[in-house]
Design goal:
Blueprint (H helix, E strand, L loop, with lengths): L7 H12 L3 E4 L4 E3 L3 E2 L2 E7 L2 E6 L5 E7 L4 E2 L2 H6 L2 E2 L2 E4 L3 E7 H6 L5 H27 L2 H11 L3 H4 L2 H8 L3 H9 L2
Antiparallel strand pairs: 1-10, 2-9, 3-8, 4-7, 4-10, 5-6, 5-9
């Protein structure tokens, strides 16, 4: 769920960064990174959907984020600090990605000022997305969060199951069904 607005030139640069890497395919529902792992890689989604998720203290599976084609996926706090992350990654449909190590990603910063600006833009965008998500959960009603999700990603219900969407919205699946039925 990418709020980053990049130019065509920047999109081309991102694809070039990853282009030397082979494509790795994941099956529907395959776990890419287990929760409580240290993230060492950065993923560029060529096709498919990746869900970032975690387990609550009660053991509930909670969807934190959804990423789609051309999104870059990693958990920055883990990759930057080389510390365990509670977040895991799961392919929600057949998914193809290109993978580079985070260290290689950072080394690319040295290659040109344009790449440095692009990487900084990606990192800043990630922090903004997390901050916006927190405000969304804390200040909007479930119905408002649902409407915003539909506005931003109208086809999301064709690609992601209701249980995952409900936990992303911070509600029970039954509540999501009631909200959808009232439309």
């Amino acid at each position: 769920m990418n709020t980053l607005k990049i130019t065509e030139k920047e999109e081309k640069q991102i694809k070039e960064l990853f282009s030397s890497q082979p494509v790795k395919k994941f099956s529907k529902n395959e776990i890419i990174v287990e929760p409580n792992s240290i993230y060492k890689n950065v993923y560029l989604i060529e096709s498919g959907v990746i869900r970032t998720f975690y387990y609550s203290s009660k053991g509930d599976d909670i969807s934190h984020w959804f990423s789609f084609e051309n999104d870059i996926v990693t958990v920055l706090s883990s990759t930057l600090n080389q510390s365990e992350s509670p977040y895991g990654l799961q392919a929600l449909e057949g998914t193809s990605v290109r993978i580079i190590t985070f260290n290689s990603f950072v080394e690319l910063k040295e290659s040109s000022p344009e790449i440095t600006q692009l990487i900084e833009k990606l990192i800043i965008s990630s922090f903004i997305k997390v901050a916006n998500r927190l405000v969304d959960i804390q200040t909007r009603t479930a119905k408002e969060r649902y409407e915003n999700l539909l506005k931003e990603y109208p086809a999301i219900f064709q690609r992601i199951n209701l249980s995952h969407i409900a936990t992303y919205l911070g509600i029970k699946r039954q509540s999501l069904s009631r909200i959808r039925a009232s439309k």
